[in-house]
Amino acid sequence: MSLVTPRLLIIEDEPSQIEILRYNFARQGFDVRVATDGEEGLQAATEDPPDLILLDWMLPELPGIEVCRQLRRNKITREIPVIMLTARSEEKDKIRGLDGGADDYVTKPYSVKELIARARAALRRPTASVTENILSVGAVQANLEKHTVHSNGVLVQISPTEFRLLVALMQSPERVFSREQLLDMVWGISADLETRTVDVHIGRLRRALHPDGAPGPIRTIRGFGYAMGPG
């Protein structure tokens, strides 16, 4: 993430909304770029990844929810914070947006000041510490080269699948992943598996990291999925 001038990509097709967002974010020191449809937005995000994306749900050609899913499947763009903008205000729509990979969800009409505050909060999202191929979150360390895991300095025995699942969570501390997202990331988008599979492996990971049954770093987000914090 750029420390001085955060780069913002706005994917929006309404000219009036584009101008309001461009003007206000530029005034706040953002370097603003605009794409007016989903395909253009995906291309812009991949060719020159921004620090943050504001994504409208209702876009021509490719809906925002699908744009978000494709951003999360691309290793170049999967970690970029995405705030979804939409006129849909029902809870089920918010869940769909978050399930598609959005970090936040703002309903139109929105307060520009609030949106800017949410954007800054998204940019402050913590990242994992990586030193010499060792990924660290709190007391958990994963060696990406040797495929080993230590918790509080103790070697932990886990399966290759559980290692991939743990790394997926560790790479984005505090970010909430749905079960469907984790299935895509760990088992692949073509895997014909139930979301219960994720719950089973999360349970095994928790027992491995904390065999004493103490609360661990993997948090359950009721009705949605999982996140990992320092623990």
Describe the structure in your own words.
With 231 residues, the chain is an alpha/beta fold. It has 2 domains: 7-123, Rossmann fold; 129-228, Arc Repressor Mutant, subunit A (Orthogonal Bundle). It is 38% helix and 23% strand. The chain has 8 helices and 13 strands. The chain has helices at 15-27, 38-47, 64-73, 91-99, 112-123, 160-170, 179-187, 196-209, and strands at 7-11, 31-35, 52-56, 82-86, 104-107, 129-131, 134-137, 140-143, 148-151, 154-156, 177-178, 218-221, 225-228. Strands 2-1-3-4-5 form a 5-stranded parallel β-sheet, sandwiched between helices. Strand 1, helix 1 (15-27) and strand 2 (31-35) form a beta-alpha-beta unit. The protein is elongated, with a radius of gyration of 19 Å.
What can be said about the biggest beta sheet?
Answer: 5 strands, parallel
Oligomer designation = single chain
Q: Report the total helices.
A: 8
Q: What is the domain tally?
A: 2
Q: What is the gist of this entry?
A:
The protein has 231 residues and is α/β, with parallel strands linked by helices. It has helices at residues 15-27, 38-47, 64-73, 91-99, 112-123, 160-170, 179-187, 196-209; strands at 7-11, 31-35, 52-56, 82-86, 104-107, 129-131, 134-137, 140-143, 148-151, 154-156, 177-178, 218-221, 225-228. It contains eight helices and 13 strands.
Could you name the key traits of this structure?
alpha/beta, about 230 residues, Rossmann fold, 5-stranded parallel β-sheet, 8 helices, 2 domains
